[in-house]
Amino acid sequence: xxxxxxxxxxxxxxxxxxxxxxxxxxxxxxxxxxxxxxxxxxxxxxxxxxxxxxxxxxxxxxxxxxxxxxxxxxxxxxxxxxxxxxxxxxxxxxxxxxxxxxxxxxxxxxxxxxxxxxxxxxxxxxxxxxxxxxxxxxxxxxxxxxxxxxxxxxxxxxxxxxxxxxxxxxxxxxxxxxxxxxxxxxxxxxxxxxxxxxxxxxxxxxxxxxxxxxxxxxxxxxxxxxxxxxxxxxxxxxxxxxxxxxxxxxxxxxxxxxxxxxxxxxxxxxxxxxxxxxxxxxxxxxxxxxxxxxxxxxxxxxxxxxxxxxxxxxxxxxxxxxxxxxxxxxxxxxxxxxxxxxxxxxxxxxxxxxxxxxxxxxxxxxxxxxxxxxxxxxxxxxxxxxxxxxxxxxxxxxxxxxxxxxxxxxxxxxxxxxxxxxxxxxxxxxxxxxxxxxxxxxxxxxxxxx
Length: 450
Fold this sequence. Notes:
The protein is an alpha/beta fold.
C-alpha cells in the first residue's frame, strides 16, 4: 500500500491524515490530532510556532509507530500569516496572528482600486500587505532576509529548503493576478525589500527530510507542495461544475466559484470579492465570511457545557432571530462572543444568539450567490458545501431555504482530501484534476440536502 500524508492545520487544531487508494477508492485515516492556538504575548496575539513545529514532527513520527510510512508529505494551513527569517535562517519572532489588531490603524498607502486591479484580492484589514507594512514601520523587517508563509515555514523546518508556494502567496495581496508573480511595483511603493522566492506551484517538490528530522521520526519522505492554502486544497477536492458554487465551511465560510481567469472589475471590487489562486492556476472567486469561528467561541464562552449538536438543537427550538453582519469587526476576536453578538442584536439569550448566527450566516450565503450570478454572469444551480461545517444539518437546510438552490453536503474532510489528491497527481502524471475530482465523487458520501 502506498501512503501519502496530509498535514492539515486550521486556526484551532491540526490533523495528520494518511491517504491511500484501496479498491479504486480514496481512503483517509486520521492518525494524529493536536491543538493550535493563539496566545497573548505582551498584549499581542501570536502563534505558538514552537508548539506547531513539534506537533507536526510528532504526528509524522506516528506514521512510524503504526507502520505506515508515507511516500510524500504535504502541509496546508490558513492564509495571510507568516514567519520572517534573518540571514542565518533564524526566526524573527513573534509570529503575529492575523487576529491581532495591529493592522487596524494602517491607512492605504496604495489605493484599494489600484491594489485590486493588480492583485484581485479583497480588502481585509489583516491581509499580509498590511502586516508587513506594520513590520516595516516597527523595524522588524530590517534584519529579515526570508519571508515564509506558515506552510512554507513548516516545510522549511522539515527539509531545510526555503520556498514560497503560489496559492497561499496570493492571500498576501502582493501577487499580481495576471502575471501570477510577486508584484514588484507594489513592494517598491511600500518600501518592502525583496525577501521573497519565485513562486512554486502545487505538485512541486520541496525536499527530503533533514538528517535531524529523519532521526526524530525514524524514516525519510519527500515533502511536496499541495495547494498550501487550506481553502485552495478544499476547492481542489470539490466536485463542482461550471454553474456551481462551493462553500468551504470551517473556521471561515468561504463561498465562491472557480474561474480560469481573474475577475478584476469595479463590480467585483465593490462587492469585495477576492481572486485567490488555486490548483492548476485556477482562480477562487470568493468572499470570506466568519463561519464556525462564531460557534467555536460561543461554545468556549459557555465552558463547553453544550456539544455543537446541542447548540444546533437549541437554535432550532427558537422561533425568533435577528440578523447581524457576520463579518462585523466586533466579533473578529472578542473576549466573549455571546456578549459581542448580543450587542449587535439586542439580546444575550443564548438560544436567540445562536439562532441569529445561523440565520445571519445563511443570509450572507444567499447574498453572495446573488452577487456571484450578477458579476460572473453564471446562472448558479448548485451549492456544494464541503468541510467540517457540512455536517451541520440546520445550516445546510437554511442555506437551501435562503438561496433556493440545490445543496450538496460533503466531503467533510475536503481540505485533507484536496491535499492528498495533489500528492496523488504528483505521483501519477496521468491523474488529471478532472479525474481526481471524479475519484473524490466515487470515494465519499456527498448528500443532497432536502
